[in-house]
Amino acid sequence: MQSRVLAILIAVVLGLVATAALVVYVNGADRRAIADQKPVIVLVATKTIKAGMSGEDAQNGNFIEAKSIPRASAVTGAFRSPTQLEGRFAAVDIVSGEQLLPTRWVGAADVEGRGLLPIPDGDQALSIGLDITRQVAGFVTPGDNVGMVLTLPRPDGNNSTRFLLQNVRVLAVGATALTTRTAQGGGGRVNQGKGAQNLTAITLAIKEKYVERVVHAAENGDIYLTLMPRNADPAPRSEQGITDSNVYPDELQ
Protein backbone atom coordinates (compact mmCIF):
# COMPACT_ATOMS: atom_id res chain seq x y z
CA MET A 1 0.00 0.00 0.00
CA GLN A 2 2.77 2.39 0.98
CA SER A 3 4.67 1.69 -2.25
CA ARG A 4 1.54 2.47 -4.28
CA VAL A 5 1.10 5.84 -2.49
CA LEU A 6 4.78 6.61 -3.01
CA ALA A 7 4.48 5.84 -6.70
CA ILE A 8 1.47 8.14 -7.00
CA LEU A 9 3.31 10.97 -5.23
CA ILE A 10 6.33 10.55 -7.49
CA ALA A 11 4.08 10.64 -10.56
CA VAL A 12 2.41 13.81 -9.31
CA VAL A 13 5.77 15.49 -8.64
CA LEU A 14 7.07 14.50 -12.07
CA GLY A 15 3.90 15.86 -13.64
CA LEU A 16 4.31 19.18 -11.83
CA VAL A 17 7.97 19.42 -12.89
CA ALA A 18 7.06 18.64 -16.49
CA THR A 19 4.29 21.23 -16.44
CA ALA A 20 6.64 23.86 -14.95
CA ALA A 21 9.27 23.08 -17.59
CA LEU A 22 6.67 23.41 -20.34
CA VAL A 23 5.50 26.77 -18.97
CA VAL A 24 9.11 28.05 -18.81
CA TYR A 25 9.74 26.89 -22.39
CA VAL A 26 6.56 28.48 -23.73
CA ASN A 27 7.26 31.76 -21.92
CA GLY A 28 10.81 31.76 -23.29
CA ALA A 29 9.53 31.15 -26.81
CA ASP A 30 7.05 33.99 -26.41
CA ARG A 31 9.80 36.33 -25.23
CA ARG A 32 12.00 35.34 -28.16
CA ALA A 33 9.14 35.89 -30.58
CA ILE A 34 8.39 39.28 -29.05
CA ALA A 35 12.08 40.22 -29.19
CA ASP A 36 12.22 39.25 -32.87
CA GLN A 37 9.22 41.46 -33.59
CA LYS A 38 10.49 44.42 -31.53
CA PRO A 39 11.07 47.25 -34.05
CA VAL A 40 14.52 48.69 -34.72
CA ILE A 41 15.59 51.67 -36.82
CA VAL A 42 17.71 51.01 -39.92
CA LEU A 43 18.70 53.21 -42.88
CA VAL A 44 17.01 52.20 -46.14
CA ALA A 45 17.43 53.51 -49.70
CA THR A 46 14.29 55.29 -50.94
CA LYS A 47 15.52 55.29 -54.56
CA THR A 48 18.53 53.99 -56.45
CA ILE A 49 21.83 55.32 -55.09
CA LYS A 50 24.42 55.31 -57.86
CA ALA A 51 27.92 54.02 -57.20
CA GLY A 52 30.20 56.89 -56.18
CA MET A 53 27.50 59.00 -54.48
CA SER A 54 28.59 60.26 -51.08
CA GLY A 55 26.61 59.52 -47.95
CA GLU A 56 26.09 63.25 -47.42
CA ASP A 57 24.68 63.75 -50.92
CA ALA A 58 22.44 60.71 -50.51
CA GLN A 59 21.02 62.17 -47.32
CA ASN A 60 20.65 65.71 -48.66
CA GLY A 61 18.98 64.39 -51.84
CA ASN A 62 16.45 62.33 -49.85
CA PHE A 63 17.83 59.05 -51.17
CA ILE A 64 17.81 57.63 -47.62
CA GLU A 65 15.27 57.28 -44.85
CA ALA A 66 15.36 55.90 -41.32
CA LYS A 67 12.81 53.07 -41.24
CA SER A 68 11.37 51.07 -38.34
CA ILE A 69 11.30 47.32 -39.10
CA PRO A 70 10.99 44.11 -37.00
CA ARG A 71 14.31 43.13 -35.44
CA ALA A 72 14.16 39.77 -37.22
CA SER A 73 14.08 41.58 -40.59
CA ALA A 74 17.10 43.79 -39.87
CA VAL A 75 20.29 42.69 -41.60
CA THR A 76 23.20 42.28 -39.20
CA GLY A 77 25.38 45.41 -39.22
CA ALA A 78 22.90 47.61 -41.14
CA PHE A 79 23.49 51.32 -40.62
CA ARG A 80 21.17 52.84 -38.04
CA SER A 81 22.43 56.44 -37.87
CA PRO A 82 23.20 58.99 -40.63
CA THR A 83 26.52 59.75 -38.93
CA GLN A 84 27.72 56.29 -39.95
CA LEU A 85 27.65 57.44 -43.60
CA GLU A 86 29.92 60.45 -43.10
CA GLY A 87 32.96 60.26 -45.35
CA ARG A 88 31.63 57.18 -47.18
CA PHE A 89 30.66 56.55 -50.80
CA ALA A 90 28.46 53.92 -52.41
CA ALA A 91 30.75 51.20 -53.77
CA VAL A 92 27.98 49.81 -56.02
CA ASP A 93 24.49 50.80 -57.13
CA ILE A 94 22.10 50.43 -54.18
CA VAL A 95 18.48 49.80 -55.15
CA SER A 96 15.37 51.27 -53.58
CA GLY A 97 14.30 49.44 -50.41
CA GLU A 98 17.75 48.02 -49.71
CA GLN A 99 19.13 48.31 -46.19
CA LEU A 100 22.44 50.19 -46.08
CA LEU A 101 25.33 47.92 -45.14
CA PRO A 102 28.97 48.83 -44.34
CA THR A 103 30.22 46.34 -46.93
CA ARG A 104 28.59 48.36 -49.73
CA TRP A 105 30.09 51.72 -48.71
CA VAL A 106 33.75 52.70 -48.95
CA GLY A 107 36.01 55.60 -48.00
CA ALA A 108 37.00 58.41 -50.36
CA ALA A 109 40.38 56.85 -51.15
CA ASP A 110 38.64 53.75 -52.51
CA VAL A 111 36.33 55.58 -54.92
CA GLU A 112 37.91 55.23 -58.36
CA GLY A 113 38.52 58.51 -60.13
CA ARG A 114 36.88 60.62 -57.42
CA GLY A 115 39.73 61.17 -54.98
CA LEU A 116 38.83 63.45 -52.10
CA LEU A 117 36.35 65.65 -53.96
CA PRO A 118 32.95 64.19 -54.85
CA ILE A 119 32.16 66.43 -57.84
CA PRO A 120 28.49 66.34 -58.91
CA ASP A 121 27.80 65.42 -62.53
CA GLY A 122 27.80 68.50 -64.77
CA ASP A 123 29.97 70.49 -62.33
CA GLN A 124 33.67 71.24 -62.13
CA ALA A 125 35.69 71.89 -58.98
CA LEU A 126 37.08 75.42 -58.89
CA SER A 127 39.06 77.13 -56.14
CA ILE A 128 39.12 80.85 -55.41
CA GLY A 129 41.16 82.68 -52.77
CA LEU A 130 39.19 84.69 -50.22
CA ASP A 131 40.14 86.39 -46.99
CA ILE A 132 38.28 85.30 -43.87
CA THR A 133 35.81 88.23 -43.92
CA ARG A 134 34.64 87.40 -47.43
CA GLN A 135 33.90 83.80 -46.45
CA VAL A 136 31.45 84.75 -43.67
CA ALA A 137 34.19 85.20 -41.04
CA GLY A 138 35.38 81.64 -41.58
CA PHE A 139 32.01 79.98 -40.98
CA VAL A 140 31.92 78.55 -44.52
CA THR A 141 32.66 74.82 -44.22
CA PRO A 142 32.68 71.82 -46.60
CA GLY A 143 29.15 70.78 -47.51
CA ASP A 144 27.62 74.26 -47.13
CA ASN A 145 25.65 76.01 -49.85
CA VAL A 146 26.77 79.55 -50.60
CA GLY A 147 25.85 82.53 -52.71
CA MET A 148 28.49 84.51 -54.60
CA VAL A 149 28.13 88.31 -54.63
CA LEU A 150 30.36 90.06 -57.16
CA THR A 151 31.46 93.69 -57.42
CA LEU A 152 32.90 94.71 -60.82
CA PRO A 153 34.02 98.09 -62.16
CA ARG A 154 31.87 99.59 -64.94
CA PRO A 155 33.01 101.62 -67.96
CA ASP A 156 31.54 104.78 -66.39
CA GLY A 157 33.93 104.42 -63.44
CA ASN A 158 31.22 103.21 -61.11
CA ASN A 159 31.21 99.81 -59.43
CA SER A 160 28.28 97.43 -59.81
CA THR A 161 27.39 94.72 -57.29
CA ARG A 162 25.01 91.81 -57.78
CA PHE A 163 24.65 88.08 -57.18
CA LEU A 164 26.80 86.06 -59.54
CA LEU A 165 25.59 82.58 -58.48
CA GLN A 166 23.54 81.07 -55.66
CA ASN A 167 23.16 77.60 -54.10
CA VAL A 168 26.76 76.69 -54.88
CA ARG A 169 28.12 73.65 -53.01
CA VAL A 170 31.37 74.04 -51.06
CA LEU A 171 33.61 71.02 -51.69
CA ALA A 172 36.57 72.03 -49.57
CA VAL A 173 37.99 74.84 -47.43
CA GLY A 174 41.77 74.99 -47.47
CA ALA A 175 42.88 71.36 -47.28
CA THR A 176 39.66 70.20 -45.59
CA ALA A 177 37.52 68.33 -48.08
CA LEU A 178 33.78 67.71 -48.13
CA THR A 179 34.26 64.01 -47.42
CA THR A 180 35.67 64.72 -43.94
CA ARG A 181 32.71 66.86 -42.86
CA THR A 182 35.02 68.77 -40.53
CA ALA A 183 35.29 72.52 -40.17
CA GLN A 184 38.08 74.68 -41.47
CA GLY A 185 41.22 74.04 -39.48
CA GLY A 186 43.47 76.92 -40.43
CA GLY A 187 45.51 74.90 -42.92
CA GLY A 188 45.80 75.37 -46.64
CA ARG A 189 46.50 79.11 -46.51
CA VAL A 190 47.57 80.62 -49.81
CA ASN A 191 48.81 84.04 -50.77
CA GLN A 192 47.52 85.20 -54.12
CA GLY A 193 45.96 88.29 -55.67
CA LYS A 194 45.49 91.52 -53.73
CA GLY A 195 48.96 91.82 -52.23
CA ALA A 196 49.71 90.59 -48.75
CA GLN A 197 46.22 89.52 -47.66
CA ASN A 198 46.05 86.08 -46.09
CA LEU A 199 43.66 84.13 -48.28
CA THR A 200 42.03 80.73 -47.92
CA ALA A 201 41.31 78.54 -50.93
CA ILE A 202 37.57 77.84 -51.14
CA THR A 203 36.83 74.99 -53.56
CA LEU A 204 33.36 75.12 -55.11
CA ALA A 205 31.28 72.86 -57.37
CA ILE A 206 30.54 75.16 -60.32
CA LYS A 207 28.24 74.29 -63.20
CA GLU A 208 30.38 73.82 -66.31
CA LYS A 209 28.68 76.67 -68.17
CA TYR A 210 29.57 79.12 -65.36
CA VAL A 211 33.24 78.19 -64.80
CA GLU A 212 34.60 80.90 -67.13
CA ARG A 213 32.36 83.54 -65.55
CA VAL A 214 33.58 82.70 -62.05
CA VAL A 215 37.23 82.77 -63.10
CA HIS A 216 36.72 86.15 -64.81
CA ALA A 217 34.96 87.46 -61.72
CA ALA A 218 37.75 86.26 -59.41
CA GLU A 219 40.42 87.82 -61.64
CA ASN A 220 38.75 91.17 -62.20
CA GLY A 221 36.35 91.80 -59.34
CA ASP A 222 35.71 91.32 -55.64
CA ILE A 223 33.71 88.33 -54.42
CA TYR A 224 31.88 87.84 -51.14
CA LEU A 225 30.29 84.53 -50.13
CA THR A 226 26.98 84.27 -48.30
CA LEU A 227 25.83 81.21 -46.34
CA MET A 228 22.52 79.83 -47.61
CA PRO A 229 20.10 77.39 -45.96
CA ARG A 230 19.86 73.99 -47.62
CA ASN A 231 17.50 74.03 -50.63
CA ALA A 232 16.86 77.75 -50.18
CA ASP A 233 15.13 79.68 -52.94
CA PRO A 234 17.53 82.12 -54.66
CA ALA A 235 17.41 85.67 -53.35
CA PRO A 236 16.20 88.36 -55.77
CA ARG A 237 18.94 89.72 -58.01
CA SER A 238 19.00 93.31 -59.26
CA GLU A 239 18.93 93.47 -63.04
CA GLN A 240 21.38 96.36 -63.43
CA GLY A 241 23.35 95.73 -60.27
CA ILE A 242 23.70 97.93 -57.21
CA THR A 243 25.70 101.13 -57.76
CA ASP A 244 26.33 104.36 -55.88
CA SER A 245 23.20 105.81 -57.44
CA ASN A 246 20.80 103.11 -56.26
CA VAL A 247 22.41 101.62 -53.16
CA TYR A 248 19.85 103.14 -50.82
CA PRO A 249 16.54 101.26 -50.69
CA ASP A 250 13.30 103.12 -51.35
CA GLU A 251 12.01 102.03 -47.95
CA LEU A 252 14.11 101.19 -44.91
CA GLN A 253 13.05 97.95 -43.27
What structural class do the secondary elements suggest? alpha+beta
Basic shape: elongated
Number of domains: 2
State the end-to-end distance.
108 Å
Order of H and E elements: HEHEEEEEEEEEHE
Helicity range: 10-25%
Rg from C-alpha positions? 31 Å
Q: Unreliable segments (pLDDT under 50, ≥5 consecutive)?
A: 179-196
Strand percent estimate: 25-35%
Oligomer: single chain
Question: Can you put this structure into words, describing what you see?
Answer:
The strands form three sheets. Strands 5, 6, 7, 8, 9, 10 and 11 form a seven-stranded antiparallel beta sheet that branches. Strands 1-2 form a two-stranded antiparallel sheet. The protein folds into two domains: 39-110, Antifreeze-like/N-acetylneuraminic acid synthase C-terminal domain (Type Iii Antifreeze Protein Isoform Hplc 12), CATH 3.90.1210; 123-228, no CATH class. It has helices at 2-37, 55-60, 211-220; strands spanning 39-45, 64-70, 88-90, 105-107, 123-130, 145-153, 159-173, 176-177, 189-190, 199-207, 222-228. The chain is α+β, with helices and mostly antiparallel strands. The protein has three helices and eleven strands; from the N terminus they run H-E-H-E-E-E-E-E-E-E-E-E-H-E.
